[in-house]
Amino acid sequence: MTVFAKIVAGELPCNKIYEDEYILAFHDINPDYKVHALVIPKSGHLEGIQDAQMSDKELLGHLMSKIPLIAEKLGVDKTGYRVVTNNGPDSHQEVPHIHFHILGGESLRGL
Ligand code: 5GP
Predict the structure, then answer these.
(1) How many domains does the chain contain in total?
(2) 75: domain CATH number?
(3) Which tens digits make up the pLDDT trace of 30-86?
(4) Which residue is closest in CA terms to ligand 1's atom 19?
(5) pLDDT tens digit string along 72-94?
(6) 111 belongs to a structural domain
(7) Which residues are catalytic?
(8) Ligand 1 neighbour 90 (Cβ under 6 A)
(9) Straight-line distance from the first to the last Cα atom of the chain, in angstroms, rounded to the nearest whole number
(10) Which of 15, 39, 85, 110 is the most core-located residue (most Cβ within 10 A)?
């Protein structure tokens, strides 16, 4: 069971920003930026974007469509933010439960 599955199950606490039937957003425990949040599907069946199937389109579309609302709750909707998902070893993905980082609250280095 991943740490994110434990958070979804209520076995680990989190600093929640948004929750609905399908997704959960919470503050990263070890923020790299002034604003650093994570958005996850409650279902842990996808380790990363490489696992996504057409049958996941509603779930992933729902998650993406809620990011502007979550950004608003974080207070970065006007200033801007970056959405990042890490996949596999070269990206230093730590948690094998697909998740999207929302980064902002400061000017980010250009990619
Ligand atoms: P990854 O490197 O897998 O893309 O990102 C995983 C993120 O999850 C990291 O930024 C890390 O700080 C965060 N994280 C790991 N364990 C926990 C936890 O128990 N609670 C919260 N809120 N964040 C966590």
Answers:
(1) 1
(2) 3.30.428.10
(3) 999 999 999 999 999 999 999 999 999 999 999 999 999 999 999 999 999 999 999
(4) 3
(5) 999 999 999 999 999 999 999 99
(6) no
(7) 99
(8) no
(9) 33
(10) 39
